[in-house]
Amino acid sequence: MVMRDSIPVKIAIGAAIVLALLFSSWFGSSSFAQETAKPQNTLEKSFPSSSKCKRCHERVFEEWEISPLAHSIHSPAFRASLDTFLVSPAGKDKAQCFRCHAPHIREFPDQVQHFIEQAKSGDPLLDGVACAQCHLIKHVDRAKQPPEPKYELGSMTLYGPYKDFVPNLAHQSMELGLFQKSDLCLNCHQSVPSATNLGKTNDLLGSWDQDKMTKAGKECQTCHMPEQVGESANGEKKRKVANHTFPGRLGKLRQEAAKLDVQTKIEGEKTTITVKVQSLVPHNLPATHPAWASVLLDLDIKGKNLKTVFTDKRVYGRVYQDAKGQKTTFDFEAVKVLEDTVLKPDETRVETFTFPTPKDTRTFDVEVTLSYAPLTGPAPFIQRVEAESSRGSFDPAFQPIEIIKYVENVPVNR
Ligand code: HEC
Ligand code: HEC
Ligand code: HEC
Ligand code: HEC
Ligand code: HEC
User: Peptide bond before 68: cis, by omega within 30 degrees of 0?
Assistant: First the structure.
């Protein structure tokens, strides 16, 4: 375009061009934009793509880009479960998954087919949970279940944490207390609508609001968007900023999830190991959407030549039943919780394992591992995920993610 070719102009003109470009293509209604508007353009004008923010917010963009939020409609597991959902009775509400995974659907419900096609393409051009999808939220209604966001579109204002923001030519800024409150996160993280018929058990986080850390003023952001010092916008003065990699399963926050206390008691032929799993998380661990999400406690006893002589495990998660009385891997099919072994906020769970004392060795190794479990489910679903993934059965969904590991060499005194 002509404007691009004439870059070396005075800064003031450059700024004016930026302003014109941004306003017309983001929020504005220039006649040109209207004439050539395809449905996507309207969507794109109301929810500017994250690549537009990257120009000035490079640090934030690069953090967000590697976060799970940036890939919320990209994973093979998402595509495979979306497919299953769409052919299920609950699938009549086609937009349901996108209300959290690409929440701009809320303002463009008639474009649901476009969202579905984008997700199914495996390489969507459409953003999932990107910058505008959060920074245009003006209010979250917590009386609704799940809580509902209210978007403020067309005012060219992006909401954020700063009162003393540096003004800029691309957008208006406004401080909104919501951005430092859990409320902003709860509209997607508190419960899933598909499971409302589960009543009180339809809570992903458990009684987090009663937890001592929550009561002491910790918000989701305190731990999942930790404070750091850096540039909020390119070239601006360094200040307090929020980490946008959203550490969770990935990132070092994981090391703060739990403590393991392991006691081994050898009584002749019989050995008993007691493991105390102390959750340090102020909400359920794991959060139980998708329904297959679970945490594993693995015990591995290695005897002579480090050969495994005994293994056992415990699973922390939920088992759901569908309307036909069968176990189901999908929360949108669930009508009942059969089993709930999720670690509740701050809970300490005591597990006991008994096994024959390893023979022909003077010592043995006790290995206890707590990890996020790999995806499991009915064979057709697993095959579907493999088929959707360029890495097949090596897709990250099939890999466990270690949270914490305890290793001890125990002498056998005979
Ligand atoms: C519009 C819906 C939405 C909002 C609002 C939202 N999230 Fe999320 N969040 C998601 C989705 C969807 C994922 C899963 C992305 C994926 O892996 O496909 C996710 C993933 C995460 C993860 C990674 C979880 C893991 O298993 O590693 C963290 C941490 C997180 N969000 C924290 C937050 C925090 C903190 C806030 C509030 C500041 C927030 N989210 C607001 C939808 C949302
Ligand atoms: C109320 C908001 C909400 C709705 C509705 C929702 N999800 Fe999610 N979804 C999330 C959040 C938040 C996460 C991240 C959870 C975590 O890591 O603890 C997530 C994670 C996932 C994941 C694992 C991460 C990934 O991308 O592979 C899958 C798969 C998934 N959702 C599928 C679906 C499907 C299919 C639907 C529709 C039936 C759906 N979700 C509806 C909020 C939602
Ligand atoms: C899941 C919601 C969410 C997403 C997605 C998100 N943000 Fe934020 N952002 C927040 C919250 C919440 C804060 C305030 C955190 C705090 O102060 O504790 C914030 C703070 C900011 C700030 C001021 C502090 C800083 O770190 O510079 C900027 C600028 C910003 N976001 C830009 C962006 C851009 C650009 C993107 C996309 C690349 C983005 N955000 C994606 C929720 C989000
Ligand atoms: C022309 C450059 C430019 C572009 C493009 C731009 N911003 Fe900004 N933005 C800034 C500057 C400069 C600040 C002020 C930073 C500061 O005060 O440290 C800012 C501040 C913000 C804040 C903080 C507001 C507050 O009061 O807390 C948010 C949130 C934000 N931008 C989001 C975005 C998002 C989302 C996009 C893309 C839709 C975007 N910005 C595009 C330059 C830009
Ligand atoms: C005191 C710190 C703290 C606070 C506050 C906190 N979390 Fe967490 N959260 C953790 C830790 C620790 C983990 C487990 C380790 C990990 O996955 O990083 C975790 C895990 C998660 C996960 C991924 C695990 C999973 O099972 O899928 C999500 C999603 C999440 N938290 C969301 C939230 C939301 C939403 C809030 C606000 C209501 C919140 N957290 C408040 C510390 C915190």
Answer: no
Is ligand 5 within 6 A of the CB of residue 213?
A: yes
Determine the atom of ligand 2 nearest the C-alpha atom of 91. Answer: 38
Is residue 277 within 8 A of residue 263, CB to CB? The reply is no
Q: What is the pLDDT of residues 54-70, one digit of tens each?
A: 999 999 999 999 999 99
Query: Is the shortest distance between the CB of 287 and ligand 5 below 6 Å?
Result: yes
**Closest ligand 3 atom to 242 CA:** 26
pLDDT digits (tens, 9 = 90+) for 295-324: 999 999 999 999 999 999 999 999 999 989
| pLDDT value at residue 280 | 96
- Which superfamily does CATH assign the domain made up of 252-411 to? Intracellular proteinase inhibitor BsuPI (2.60.40.2360)
Domain ranges of the chain: 2-242, 252-411
d(CA 339, CA 321): 9
Question: Exposed, middle or buried: residue 349 (CB in 10 Å: 0-12, 13-18, 19+)?
Answer: middle
Q: Pick from 72, 244, 245, 246 the residue to mutate for probing ligand 3's pocket: most ligand atoms within 8 Å of its CB.
A: 244
